[in-house]
Amino acid sequence: MTSRMFKFGVTAASACVGSVLASYTLDRWNSPHVVNNAQTLPPKRKRTLPPRGDQIKSLMSGEEFDVLIIGGGATGAGCALDSVTRGLKTALVELDDFASGTSSRSTKLIHGGVRYLQKAILGLDLEQYRMVKEALAERATMLESAPHLTHPLPIMLPVYQWWQVPYYWVGIKAYDLVAGDRNVKSSYYLSKKDALELFPMLKKDKLCGAIVYYDGQQDDARMCLAVALTAARHGATVCNHVEVKELLKKDDGTGKQVLCGAKVKDHISGKEFTVKAKCIVNAAGPFTDSIRKMDNPSVKSICCPSSGVHIVLPGYYSPDQMGLLDPSTSDGRVIFFLPWQRQTIAGTTDLPCEITHNPTPTEDEIQFILNEIKNYLNADVEVRRGDVLSAWSGIRPLVSDPNKDDTQSLARNHIVHVSPSNLITIAGGKWTTYRAMAEHTIDAAIKACNLKPERAEAVTSYLKIEGGQGWTPTMYIRLVQDFGLECEVAQHLAKSYGDRAFAVSKMASLTGKRWPIIGNRIHPEFPYIDAEIRYGVREYACTAVDMIARRLRLAFLNVQAAQEALPVIVDIMGEELQWSKEEKERQIKNATEFLANEMGHSVNRTSKERIPIKLSKEEIQTYIKRFQLIDKDKKGYVSINDIRRALKSFGDGDVSGEQLHDILREIDTNMNGQVELDEYLQMMSAIKTGDVAYSRFARMAELEEQKHEAANLKQKISVDRSGGGL
Predict the structure, then answer these.
(1) Considering the domain boundaries, does residue 117 fall inside one?
(2) DSSP-assigned beta bridge partners for residue 138
(3) Which end of the chain has the lower number of beta carbons within 10 A, N or C?
């Protein structure tokens, strides 16, 4: 034991001293990309956001752009903002929607990487150290540039063995040290008592204490969208749902073939046209190789995709303002357990996968995360499969560096590559460093394509992102007082839109109530209101999926709630975009498929089908009786008309057809449009075992039984026989 303690003491001390010396040395001779804030400020942003139609006209105008960016994720949007604020004529096209891929499916953290720093120090890896240091500096920049969409988040690292206390403490202090004056807040140690007070769900047995450190948290999809909108306000032409079909080349006068534009297709209008550009940037994330092969079909692939699955659980699984880090899972990975938007995110996995536009979470990955969570929560918190509200998979585009001879090893950081035809490829990296990645990319583009920017260096390090300029932490109070919004709704609008929340509020409809005066919710459990749908269209939302997944985050927070809100959302979008009845039906169908396949709805349903019936004879008899009370015609199954009749008898006469179908779908695992007895018994068994948290059909059957018993009681004791009263 003494020998072990000595070894860990030496390791911890060495790590601390090494990080101090490394920080000091590197800060002296390795300070890349310092921005001179005294240089010319970027042009003032436009007062109004150009409509999507105007953006498409700009693309079709035939004018030559300085830079054409392919990809509307975090990196692509960052490149557009960096380019346009340097004074370059900039365009961006995205096949799907802004942040529709990996950029909306992250862990929502803005971090340097505690695990990377551990490897850098213990392995004396200078490259990995630089990567962490850059990420920590960019973390501070993100928190400053978009204060409404980002915030510091304390993360607890529970310690269950005494020798780990100094080891982790020194490691986390080294993390603070590397951040230097860009640190968010200082880390600290907590006793067992204090740790349980802050995180009462934590497992108490053998807990020695905890280390708390700070990273940042963000709304990733809205952050990416805000960066793209900021670029648009500065004059960039940004268009979602525009696919690059072909890259065009010309002779540069020396016999060399260089890129000069692209043939593209607008999937909303169906039009195909050519966009001219002096320089093309490939920021396609996992689809990097498909663009590289448009440029040169014989080029070797560099992307090695990895799937990361996250799940969302109810908010009571974690405190409102404290995350949890499991530094070593059963298979050596790291699991984060974080509060987000009043729910709890848990993840992630890390498995090789195929590149696809529609990644899906698997039951095995969901169960892995649930099993790891159980190891850290106390016995009072029953981790149930039925509590999984949503699940998604994001593809992390790890890359090998084509600039090096050895292309087999994966690059730890991002890479910028210039092809012989001047295709600028930016690949790898992570969300936190999107701005630095964009800066390095545009630097390379200017050099390779001989561009003439108004400003030689980037100005994005001190630029406020859309909504951040006039935002204050108490801005929501003005929304409540000036517009008559609910406090919860006002807080949500302020955090999601920043100073643009006032423009959103002006679009809200009257409630017809004494309070709130305006702001009709699109779902009773969430603070999203009708005005956000109308404003979302002005933020270039073109489909129902754009709306439920990336303008609102409903699909990520609760897949069932998103399904229930779809009809209202599609109706409002239909008014704004003049959709026909057929188009509305198509949008609902596409959004339903998205929720089923990409947001975990179908895997949730499949998990219910696998559940064996574990009920006692008495319970089975009770549930058969309830089922028969709803099936009044003795058909042997419950139809949608039976559900409608039961709800009307409870006074819910205004239930829409879509809501009736939602109730039916949540229990109709056979998908034949009716509820059979075995499906009902399976659902009740799942509720009993905790695999399903709640069922509206089950509640309806219970109320039907109570109503039946109350009616029987009245018949047994009539007024005449009871003596007429007292």
Answers:
(1) no
(2) none
(3) C
Same-domain status, 235 and 99: yes
From CA 75, how far away is CA 87, in angstroms rounded?
19
The residue segments making up the domain with residue 532 are 474-606
The pair phi, psi for residue 212, each rounded to 5°, is -115, 125
- Rounded Cα distance between 592 and 564, Å, is 10
The answer to the question of residue 481 being in a domain is yes
Do 577 and 673 lie in a common domain? no
Surface-to-core class of residue 457, CB atoms within 10 Å of its CB (0-12 exposed, 13-18 middle, 19+ buried):
middle
Residue with tokens 């010319």: 40
Does residue 726 belong to any structural domain of this protein? no
Residues 316 and 447 grouped into a single domain: no
Question: And the tokens for 242?
Answer: 């525009």
Q: Is 85 exposed, middle or buried (0-12, 13-18, 19+ CB in 10 A)?
A: buried
State whether residue 350 is helix, strand or coil: coil
pLDDT digits (tens, 9 = 90+) for 180-236: 999 999 999 999 999 999 999 999 999 999 999 999 999 999 999 999 999 999 999
Buried b / exposed e over 275-305, threshold 16 CB at 10 Å, is bbbbbbbbbbbbbbbbbbebbeeeeeebbbb
DSSP state of 691: S
- Model pTM score: 0.83
Summarised one tens digit per residue, pLDDT across range 226-276 is 999 999 999 999 999 999 999 999 998 888 999 999 999 999 999 999 999
